[in-house]
Amino acid sequence: MTRLFVVLAALASLMMMASGASAEDSRYGKQKVVYHINYNGGEEDKAYRGAMRNIQNHINAVGKENLDVKVVLHGNGVSLLKNAKQNEKLQQDVLNLKSQNVGFHVCNNTLTGRNISYENDLFEVWEEDIVPSGVAELSRLQQMGYTYIKP
């Protein structure tokens, strides 16, 4: 009986070691994250492009099938989508991320307070992308288990 136990234990150990490569592939498991952008993009939208790169790097590391990403934009962060109307690089970044199921949530308080029309002034924003409050949306998503990231 002891011999059988030793053989089974050794076999189980070998199976775990053999599956090590596939375990490494899924190192990060499934993730839900919310990226918070409420700052200016700076010269040539460098900060916005950097944030978009961070999100893409995150997707590359975890795999889009394992990642649920939301980007909440409020205050000065809404300028990311405003500037994208004229900045082709930002347009490409936004479209690329959206094609990987990244959701962009835009604060209605900011739109109202700054007299911004999502239809006319922002790049690729639809009615379903508008949330009542950016900060309340951040809290809601965190309560739903999303990890908060501020790039």
Protein model, in words:
It is a single chain. The chain is of the alpha/beta class and 151 residues long. It has one domain: DsrEFH-like (Hypothetical Protein Ychn, Chain: A, 3-Layer(aba) Sandwich). It has eight helices and five strands; from the N terminus they run ααβαβααβααβαβ. Strands 4-3-2-1-5 form a five-stranded parallel sheet, with helices on both faces. Helix 3 (46-62) links the parallel strand 1 (31-37) and strand 2. The longest helix has 17 residues, at 2-18. The model is unreliable at 4-24 (pLDDT under 50).
* CATH 2nd-level architecture: 3-Layer(aba) Sandwich
Q: Could you tell me the number of beta strands?
A: 5
Unreliable segments of 5+ consecutive residues:
4-24
The overall pLDDT average reads 88
Output the structural class.
Answer: alpha/beta
What name does CATH use for the topology? Hypothetical Protein Ychn, Chain: A
State the name of the first-level CATH class. Answer: Alpha Beta
| N- and C-termini, Cα separation | 57 Å
**What is the makeup of the main sheet?**
5 strands, parallel
Order of strands across the biggest sheet?
4-3-2-1-5
The coarse silhouette is globular
Number of helices: 8
Taken in chain order, the helices and strands follow as: HHEHEHHEHHEHE
Helix fraction? 40-55%
Domain count: the total is: 1
Strand content: 15-25%
